[in-house]
Design a protein that fits this description.
Elements: E1 18-22, H1 38-42, H2 50-65, E2 71-74, H3 82-87, H4 94-104, H5 106-111, E3 124-127, E4 137-141, H6 154-164, E5 171-174, E6 188-191, E7 204-209, H7 227-236, E8 244-248, H8 251-255, E9 265-268, E10 271-275, H9 282-292, E11 298-302, H10 309-315, E12 321-324, E13 330-335, H11 337-340, H12 342-351, E14 358-364, H13 367-370, E15 380-383, H14 401-414, H15 427-444, H16 451-454
Parallel strand pairs: 1-2, 4-5, 7-8, 10-11, 13-14
Antiparallel strand pairs: 1-15, 3-4, 6-7, 9-10, 12-13
Helix pairs in contact: 2-14
Bound molecules: N~2~-(3-carboxypropanoyl)-L-arginine (SUG).
């Protein structure tokens, strides 16, 4: 689809940004936990396939790495999370805790069992060293407080990110902000003056909030990102004020199912791919982005008549990864659903037809994740690095073809083929999940990451 011969492209040869994908966890399931997330609601209580889900995620990592960009992964969290259930008053042995929660409060067991940490676009907001006043890489862990099943994640996420970026002289992992709901990179876009998405050049940060500026919130669904939190993340991450812009998400888009901004827009380098209804005050928002980027941004706006917002949500076109390849071209990595829905297909063809900086498209099957509202872009946290920072990621978290083989074998060994909500109460699932994570952390070699490893079981 629309790929120009390599010799016609400008060769930039800079180190592009790192993609850090979440490894899908063994308890991946459909519990209908996210109001406002259309897919999560529609698939509540469906049978999930954790092994297939994790392998689909690895296939995507392999395909993205093949574009020539650095790829890493973040391990799953321990689930069911017994400490959460104990804090809610369930006692006895771990098996007792699971049995009582299953019997008396299955919704609490479901909350404590979600594999939602796989969507690492919600793990943190990343301020690269080129944009931070102190010249260091900053990762601000998201508090995810608007959804109870996701609010469990930040403590473990902080631990994992600190293990993944251990050089504290060059990288800082911040505790979550306490000033309102924050959903991390899913509500944040970084634009640069060129095709380059890495941190060798400074960028402009667009923080997209859903509520908190005094204007009317969405009528039907919750707005998860609050303005105060976005502002706090920007300062906490050391972002120089001139580089930060705060734009309101269109409340109607949230009501249509864009529970995160990355369901209706995505930026990469100097490209901003967006649905025309993504932002409140659409034209003005785009003007402000143009001004902040000194006119450097190349907007690709998909109109509602071509792709109604409801189809943007069902196809997840905007939840594609747009990746700058080392040859300077850009590939859009879209969910396979986009190839099957005529309007989304047409929009994708137009985006990648060679008239925009995006000159190639790749369709990926991540359907197990999609059924919970997680597309290709949700599954990864982007970390723009300078050339001199390519060693910042602990090697244990790197994806390479050799390490892929180990991860595949590990998934085949430990992951259930299918899972229903009742299975979550099975103590043997808990045991095997812990054995699996012990094997994974030994292999990663960055120390203990989980509560059950640090405090003992439970
Ligand atoms: O937070 N789904 C996730 C999907 C997150 C997608 N991430 C981005 N857009 N970046 C959420 O709503 C559903 C779990 C369930 O229903 O079982 C869930 O948590």
């Amino acid at each position: 689809m629309g790929v120009r011969p390599a010799e016609q492209r400008t060769t930039l040869l800079r180190v592009p940004e790192l993609q850090l994908d979440g490894l899908v966890g063994p308890t991946h399931n459909y519990a209908g936990l996210s109001p406002g997330n259309v897919a999560s609601q529609a698939n509540r209580a469906a049978v999930s396939h954790p092994r297939k889900a994790a392998l689909q995620g690895l296939d995507k990592m392999r395909a993205v790495a093949a574009l020539g960009v650095p790829q890493g992964f973040l391990p799953p969290h321990e689930r069911p999370h017994v400490p959460t259930l104990r804090a809610l008053g369930f006692g006895g042995s771990d098996a007792d805790v699971l049995a009582a929660a299953h019997r008396d409060a299955p919704h609490l067991l479901a909350r404590a069992s979600s594999a939602s940490a796989m969507w690492t676009a919600n793990a943190a907001t990343v301020i690269p060293s080129a944009d931070a006043a102190d010249g260091r890489l900053h990762l601000v862990v998201a508090n995810l407080r608007s959804m109870p099943h996701r609010a469990i994640e930040p403590a473990t996420t902080a631990r994992i990110l600190r293990a993944a970026f251990p050089d504290t002289t060059r990288a800082t992992v911040h505790e979550p902000v306490d000033s309102g709901g924050d959903e991390g990179a899913a509500n944040h876009i970084r634009l640069t003056p060129s095709h380059d998405a890495g941190a060798d050049e400074a960028g402009t940060h667009v923080f997209v909030f859903g509520t908190g500026d005094g204007s009317s919130p969405p009528k039907v669904h919750p707005a998860r990102q609050e303005l105060a939190a976005s502002m706090h993340v920007a300062t906490c991450g050391g972002l120089t004020p001139a580089r930060a812009l705060f734009i309101r998400q269109n409340p109607d888009a949230i009501d249509a199912g864009c529970f995160h901004n990355d369901v209706c827009s995505v930026g990469n380098g100097n490209v901003l791919l967006m649905h025309e209804r993504a932002f409140a005050d659409g034209t003005e928002a785009l003007d402000r982005i143009r001004e902040a980027t000194a006119g450097g941004v190349i907007p690709i706006v998909v109109r509602d008549v071509d792709l109604p917002i409801a189809e943007a949500v069902s196809s997840y076109l905007f939840n594609s990864q747009v990746i700058t390849r080392p040859d300077g071209g850009m590939t859009i990595v879209a969910p396979s659903e986009c190839g099957e829905m005529p309007n989304a297909r047409r929009a994708l063809d137009r985006i990648a037809d060679g008239t925009t900086p995006i000159d190639a498209a790749l369709l990926m099957d991540v359907r197990e994740s999609m059924r919970n509202g997680g597309g290709p872009a949700c599954l990864r946290l982007r970390v723009p690095l300078r050339r001199s920072e390519s060693d910042l990621l602990h090697p244990g978290f790197r994806w390479t073809p050799d390490r892929d083989a180990w991860l595949r074998a590990w998934i085949e060994r430990w992951y259930p083929d299918s899972l229903t909500p009742d299975d979550l109460a099975d103590p043997s699932l808990l045991r095997s999940m812990r054995d699996a994570l012990d094997a994974l952390t030994s292999w990663i070699g960055a120390g203990s990451l989980y509560d059950f490893q640090l405090r003992g079981n439970g």
